[in-house]
Design goal:
The chain has a 3-stranded antiparallel beta sheet, with no helix packed on it. α13 runs antiparallel to α17 and α14 runs antiparallel to α15 (271-279). The radius of gyration is 22 Å and the shape is globular. A hairpin with a 7-residue loop joins β1 and β2 (413-414). The protein has helices at residues 2-40, 46-49, 55-66, 72-84, 89-101, 104-113, 116-140, 143-154, 162-166, 176-181, 183-217, 220-226, 232-250, 258-267, 271-279, 285-295, 297-324, 345-366, 369-373, 387-390, and strands at residues 404-405, 413-414, 428-429. It is mainly alpha-helical. It folds into 2 domains: 10-369, no CATH class; 392-436, no CATH class.
């Protein structure tokens, strides 16, 4: 009896471990590259750069989103933050979409598990989805609904990962290479790397466990029937429609849904259905509840309707376009495999990138990272330890405050009990050489 229960569990864990081992190096590489980008691009000017829903603002929103963390919760929190700071609502939502669909780590992971065609589909379909969303907003979003959403947003109802969203550790001055190579740049990269992992690891782990369970327990015949494999034309329409619904019910967001996408692709979902499924991490049930808190019930329902429509439409466009170009893979051989760790290129890459990860983690631990990590989920406003709560403190040393500064933002000065309003780190005593 016990063996009959434990055997399926062991099989599911076996699949989950195998996928983890297969993608580990890609995750480290993706998060490291994302950290480098975030370290040289400041979030501070986002509200000013996104004043309207013009093509220029939407393009800037996409670029800023692609340079941000891939954590869906952080993207949602940051979108509200820049909306409250004066950004156009449509541009803020475009930023949110780009943050979770146009990021480096997602593309790398798709290429490793599913193939380069899926990476291309993501980076082609993502902008298409944003354009469709902008058109839907122009057609149906009324100014009075935006005003209601702004009033609700200004109430500052806490959500998830708001502290992470508000932290800005980017390095300014000099060329991009000099910023990356500087001590401050190295520190910023290590902090972004660890905080991004901290914000997403639960989704990645949950996604891998669910994918392992589905691969081990759900027979292929069920997926083929569910995705209408025997009806080629209908399945191409059904896939983009049902993909976001499956994503909503999975509770997995960010890049954690890629392992599930691999299982669904092997099971028979259409190419466009995979794209729509991955797009839909911003309408999972917990995030829909955050929209309700951030913008009110009416706006949350509007976002659900328009987001779902744009995701389905983009998935259908991807399906038709890639079929016409002959880019849809003929074989369904995504890497959903049983554990088999051998000395091959995957093992070598895992060792190399785990060493890189160790270097970044050590730097993080030696530069005040843990205290910042504890603030990641703090509310952006209305909390004694929040960034907003310290925003009113003086940024230049005066009187008894002289001698303490933020290790990430040396221009921010104050007393030993103050925190930096930009990144949330506690101020540290400066060396004599840095005092004015």
């Amino acid at each position: 009896m016990l063996a009959s229960v434990l055997s399926p569990i062991a099989e599911a864990l076996d699949f989950a471990f195998a996928m983890t081992w297969e993608i580990l190096w890609a995750l480290v590489l993706g998060f490291a590259l994302s950290a480098v980008v975030q370290a040289v691009i400041s979030r501070g000017e986002m509200g000013r750069l996104l004043p309207d829903d013009s093509p220029r603002s939407l393009a800037i929103a996409c670029g800023l989103g692609a340079a941000s963390s891939s954590c869906s919760y952080a993207a949602v929190a940051l979108a509200r933050s820049i909306f409250r700071k004066g950004a156009d609502f449509s541009a803020a939502m475009a930023f949110e979409f780009a943050s979770t669909n146009l990021v480096i780590e997602l593309g790398i992971l798709l290429a490793v598990l599913l193939g380069w065609q899926f990476t291309l589909a993501e980076f082609v379909g993502g902008p298409i989805m944003i354009v469709i969303l902008a058109l839907l907003f122009r057609a149906f979003l009324r100014p009075e609904l935006v005003e209601l959403a702004r009033r609700q947003a200004d109430r500052g109802v806490p959500g998830v990962m708001e502290g992470h969203a508000e932290m800005d550790m980017s390095v300014g001055g000099g060329s991009i290479l000099s910023r990356v190579r500087s001590r401050q740049g190295f520190t910023a990269i290590s902090h972004y790397y660890v905080t991004d992992w901290a914000s997403i690891w639960k989704d990645i782990a949950l996604g891998l466990l669910i994918a392992g369970a589905l691969a081990a327990w759900v027979p292929e015949s069920f997926w083929q029937g569910f995705f209408l494999v025997d009806h080629p034309l209908l399945s191409k329409i059904w896939g983009p429609m049902i993909g976001p619904v499956v994503a909503m019910l999975s509770f997995v967001c960010s890049i954690g849904n890629v392992p599930l996408a691999a299982v669904l692709w092997n099971g028979g979902i259409s190419f466009g259905g995979v794209a729509a499924f991955i797009f839909a991490d911003l309408i999972i049930l917990p995030i829909l509840n955050i929209y309700r808190k951030y913008y009110g019930r009416r706006m949350s329902l509007f976002l659900l309707a328009t987001f779902y429509t744009s995701m389905v439409a983009a998935g259908l466009v991807v399906e038709v376009l890639f079929q016409a170009l002959g880019l849809v893979p003929d074989d369904r051989n995504a890497k959903v495999i049983e554990a088999n760790v051998t000395w091959n290129y995957t093992t070598f890459l895992n060792i190399v990138f785990l060493a890189l990860s160790a270097v970044l983690v050590v730097r993080f631990l030696r530069t005040g990272g843990p205290q910042m990590l504890r603030m990641m989920n703090a509310p952006a406003t209305g909390h004694p330890d929040s960034h907003a709560g310290h925003a009113e403190r003086p940024s230049r040393a005066t009187g008894s405050d002289e001698g303490y500064a933020c290790p990430m933002h040396p221009e921010i000065r104050g007393g030993p009990d103050d925190r930096c309003p930009s990144c949330g780190m506690r101020l540290e005593r400066r060396d004599d050489s840095t005092r004015s």
